[in-house]
Amino acid sequence: xxxxxxxxxxxxxxxxxxxxxxxxxxxxxxxxxxxxxxxxxxxxxxxxxxxxxxxxxxxxxxxxxxxxxxxxxxxxxxxxxxxxxxxxxxxxxxxxxxxxxxxxxxxxxxxxxxxxxxxxxxxxxx
Length: 126
Fold this sequence. Notes:
By secondary structure, this protein is mainly beta. The protein has one helix spanning about 1-20, and strands spanning about 25-35, 35-40, 45-50, 50-60, 65-70, 75-80, 85-90, 100-105, 115-120. The chain has a single domain (about 20-120), classed as Immunoglobulin-like. The protein has a four-stranded mixed β-sheet with strand order 2-1-4-7, with no helix packed on it.
């Protein structure tokens, strides 16, 4: 009976390890007013090609526009974010996306200051 119990326990651990999915990394971006200009902050967001990222987007500025755009052309993301209604967007960074810097902007208000998505090369697994 002990052998069967240990074998069953081993199979449960093995299957949970094999079928486990990685939890996406959460990154919060929000609008801030700096010197009379609206910015997406933080100014820079680092990601790795191949990883899944959950962007939590917030617009909580009073006055001005009731909504802002959240636009990352390199990831084909185009969203509208309403004031005081956070939006969550889960994106897998393509493994084929070249390392480099890509804008995170507002497609509705081009004068707003964009943040920068910094894509690092995919990590090699052994």
